[in-house]
Structure formats: C-alpha cells, structure tokens
Amino acid sequence: MNPRKPSVTAQDVARRAGVSRAVVSRALSNNGSISPDARARVLRAAEELGYQVNFLARG
C-alpha cells in the first residue's frame, strides 16, 4: 500500500510566495486587486508545489 502524499494547501503556496492566504485566494481566482508581482509569485509558487484547487473545500 502506498502512503498518501499530503495535499498542498493555499497556506503552503502563501508561505512559498511570501504573501498572505488572502492574496493567494485573489490571485488564483483572478479576483480583486493585487500587484502583478504578487500574482506572478503566487502562480509560480503554486506551479512549483503542484497546487490544485480542491473544489470540495471551496465555500
């Protein structure tokens, strides 16, 4: 049996990008005003970590 790898969370992306969890949310939903630099850092961190949106966790 293979052990499950823990999922990458938005908080993990925030830590890697050096931004808040709220900025990650805005960047990934393309909603809200954040700087182009912050958006690029979030998207790069999400890609590096292999982040995938968990649609069941969305409110």
Give an account of the 3D structure.
One of its GO terms (molecular function) is transcription cis-regulatory region binding. The protein is mainly alpha-helical and 59 residues long. It has a domain at 10-49. 53% of the residues lie in helices and 0% in strands. It is built from three helices and no strands. The protein has helices spanning 10-17, 21-29, 36-49. α1 (10-17) crosses α3. 22% of the residues are buried. The mean pLDDT is 89.
Short description:
It holds the Pfam family LacI. The protein is mainly alpha-helical and 59 residues long. 53% of the residues lie in helices and 0% in strands.
Give the SSE map:
Blueprint: H1 10-17, H2 21-29, H3 36-49
Identify the notable features of this structure and list them briefly.
59 residues; globular
What's the N-to-C terminus distance? Answer: 33 Å
What is the chain-wise order of helices and strands? HHH
Q: Please tally the β strands and state the result.
A: 0
Portion of residues in helices?
40-55%
The average pLDDT value, as a whole number, equals 89
Q: Sketch the major β-sheet.
A: none
Could you say which structural class the secondary elements and strand pairing correspond to? mainly alpha
Classify the beta-strand content into a percent band: under 5%
State the shape.
Answer: globular
Would you identify the regions where 5 or more consecutive residues have pLDDT less than 50? none
* Radius of gyration, CA atoms, in whole angstroms: 12 Å
User: What's the total helix number?
Assistant: 3
Keywords: DNA-binding, Transcription, Transcription regulation
Pfam family, one: LacI
GO molecular function: DNA-binding transcription factor activity; transcription cis-regulatory region binding
Organism: Klebsiella pneumoniae
